[in-house]
Design a protein that fits this description.
Elements lengths: L15 H34 L17 H6 L2 H20 L1
Length: 95
């Protein structure tokens, strides 16, 4: 009786695997750039809101203050329009 040895081969190497990795890398870089394009202006606005001189500059504020927020959070500028919007929204949702 003669036994034949079973031939064991390694995993198949896919030609598409490096291409798939490159596409994933390119997609990740593009998404990171798009994310930065949305995030940088948003952070710029947030940092500018804490600037005491109320100037729009590309640097971080030297002194951080909430004075700009206290000037805006008045009944006439914020709370009255907000309550008005809530009343209209609730009325629309009921209808």
């Amino acid at each position: 009786m003669s036994a034949t040895a079973r031939i064991v081969t390694g995993r198949r190497i896919s030609v598409a695997a490096p291409r798939k990795r490159m596409q994933t890398l390119i997609a990740s870089v593009i998404l990171a750039v798009i994310g930065a394009l949305f995030l940088v202006p948003l952070l710029w606005i947030v940092f500018a809101s804490f600037n005491e001189t109320a100037t729009v500059s590309m640097s971080l504020p030297e002194t951080w203050t909430l004075d700009n927020y206290t000037q805006v959070m008045t009944w006439e500028l914020t709370w009255s329009p907000l309550l008005n919007s809530i009343a209209v929204s609730l009325g629309t949702a009921v209808i």
